[in-house]
Amino acid sequence: MVVRVPPVMRRVRSATLGRPRLPARLSPRRTRIFAFVGLLGPGLIAANAGNDAGGVATYASAGAKYGYGLLWTIVLITLSLGVVQMLAARMGVVTGKGLAELIREEYGIRWSVFATSAVLVANLGLCVSEFVGVGASLGLAGIPAQASVPVAALGIWLIIVRGSYRSAERVFIAFTIPFFAYPIAAILAHPHWGAVGRAVVAPHLHASTSYVLLLVATAGTTITPYMQLYLQSAVVERGAREDELAREEREAVSGAVFANLVAAFIVIATGATLFTHGVHDISSAADAARALNPFAGHYAEVLFGVGLLGASLLAAAILPIATSYVISESLGYEKGIGRRREEAPVFVNIITTMLIVSAFVAVIPGVPVISLLIGVQVVNGLLLPINLFFIWRLARSAHVMGARSSRGLPDLVTGITVTVLSTLSLVLVVVTASGG
Amino acid sequence: MEAAREALTMSAVNATQAPPILHLSSVVGSPLRDSAGERLGRVEDVIVRLGGVGYPPITGFLVRVAGRTSFLGVERISDMAPDGVVLRTEKLDLRHFERRPEEVLLKRDLLDRQLINVEGARLVRANEIELAHAGGSWRVVGVDTGPRGGLRRLLPKGLGVHIATGEFLDWAGVEPFVGHVPTVRLRVPHPKLAKLHPAQIADLVEAASRPEGEEIIQAVGDDDRELEADVFEELDDQHQREFLEDRPDAQVAAILSRMAPDDAADIIGELDEDRREPVLALLPVSHRVKVRALLGYDPAEAGGLMSPDFILLAGTTAVSEALREVRESPIAPELLTSVFVRGADGTLEGSVPVAALLRAAEGSRLEAVIKHEVPCIPPDAPFEEIARLMADYNLTAIPVADEHEAMVGVVTVDDLLGAMLPRSWRRRFGLLGED
Questions:
Q1: Per-residue model confidence as pLDDT tens digits over A284-329
Q2: Residue A9: its chain B contacts at CB < 8 A?
Q3: Domains in chain B, start-ordered, CATH in brackets?
Q4: Inter-chain contact B210–A96, Cβ cutoff 8 Å?
Q5: What pTM was computed for the model?
Q6: DSSP states of A317-338 as a string?
Q7: What is the DSSP secondary structure assignment for residue A274, as one 8-state letter?
Q8: Residues of chain B neighbouring A14 (CB-CB closer than 8 A)
């Protein structure tokens, strides 16, 4: 039998590539193992990418400057992040579409192009800072950034373009293992656990501008727009079905909780050492690692460096993917991890270009990372309220979500979260832009 | 089909005096004027009726006049241009808008959403919808999926109008998704999908989101149950599961009974354990027996790959009789490259390629043309062994026989190839299972 296959068919077929396929039947034993592994997925990856070089620097300076004083905000931030990430996962499962795709369909091409350009600019800047982080963490071990950064970029490119979604996901999950360095570093720092406990439950307010600023910056670095964009697209690419909704939501929330535990341990580690010894000013994550050495020992420095490396690699991989997802979705190009260039040219080219540009910029000696991060903060600060607003509106729309639309109390909680986070975000923009 | 095609092409649009193309984005938001040119309000959306043959006609507009959104029938307007919609009269007669069956709002329901490009068998996104006055009425003539349409809408209106109309997809080659439109749901058939190969439809289903995929399958199933079953055969495991899970047992059984037994057995294996028996019980008896037998084999061995459909004849059968069997058999052609020959005791003796039957001398019997040296394999033969034998013996189909040497099935080269392709290739082609 001869089937005439038009040449374009190959392209359509490629649209299914890299789609995860579930094993036909899982035996009960395997199901139990998978119930645990099910907690490791895009939610964990998305939220933990937030513990990147910039995040570590913010948490470390929060700990150095105010000790455990900002720990209570991390609890609130965890709740907010959990709510937002859960909604992104839910929308991915129910609609089978990415966030950028939904924004385009429901709110038109202008909003989607605005969001897309903001994502591109902010993520490109962040990506540079991640490669700076990679260079700095390996710099602690004496490896020059000019050698480590290109190798890291190439490795990440291979994982994204040559692997499949599943294999990439496994590697990204492995990138989160170095985060366990932070709890160990925190223990090595011998904190006063009683004081830590009190700081977690009792809000502690300073009426100083720098305290408020640091608070807002902590929220801003923990909840970033690309997290929701990546999570929702990844859930779609995973091919999660509606009966797996509860699992995907749990995974999104537990990922957020884990990411913030890590953040809390960074605050504890630096609070117990740098703060008590009067080292209050930390400007980068590598700074924090070096500063830890005299007080918590060489191992704490190494552990901090390892954590930084894992976080920077993870975020450097997630950022180009998230960006490429968003652009491909809003412009209607084929997308997917593991696609070759000929199958999804736009998707792959964006990732390749982003990796090359940011790795190149990152190794330029004396690149102004701080001002770069400030610029990123402004763009992200403007993008986040828009992103959150759309998430809120879309999640409660019966038209989009059908029976899964959020109503009543969950909707109210989302509304409050979105409002508070948006306000914080805009405050951060104003303060940063005015040079505060 | 040809006649329909003819009607769809509507020579007036593409040939001699092609009417000017009007962009949806320039109509939406433009002023509504009365016959004297007085501005009355604004056009909010354009309503068209889908479902018929040919280009969908515009039936009306959603207009905003004095703070209220109302319906304006197309028969009440005299002209439509980028600078506004002009009323036939000076009097404005507005009605409350209610969706009628098969009616969609172009901006709200189609623009910026995915469509099926039927000619290319792929999903595209509508950046712009093109309208024209043709055949006595305003109609949707095509969809722009390129950057021009998007750019025009992105730029401020004054700049956007300078972007010329680019190439766009003719509506005849496009099928919209309407599952999200209330009242239209499931009422609009997608006749153009039937032109595609089942494998292409399956690819579209896999590339689309869940509700869109469901819509494609529903539409295909409403028109042609056979095609629906073919599409299911082509879907990957995950999507087979997804789309079968929500269906009642009777529907699943109806789909399975239209499939080849080996494909049906594969799908039964995908179902939840507690649904397998009820679904099996609803299959026609002969089908059920074959499927049940196949389910007993390990899917990683010959038994799990074979088809139980083959022609097995006694050696004394006349060649003409064997050819008649082939001619009248309902078995799929790819399974019938050879007929198999049994001895007096029922054991498998050999095979005869259909080409050899055609070449055989008039009046000869199968015994005269039989190839005895053809290997047969047990149901537990591994794929590598089957591949080796097929290559060594130049076979496209190899018989499977049980311990009593009675033939139970046949493994064809296409199925083996599907199972044997290197993992990375399979992933690249989107074939089978987990990576």
A1: 778 888 887 777 778 878 888 888 898 899 999 999 999 998 888 8
A2: 121, 197, 199-200, 203
A3: 2-176 (no CATH), 236-296 (no CATH), 312-420 (3.10.580.10)
A4: yes
A5: 0.77
A6: HHHHHHHHHHHHHHHT----TT
A7: I
A8: 428, 430
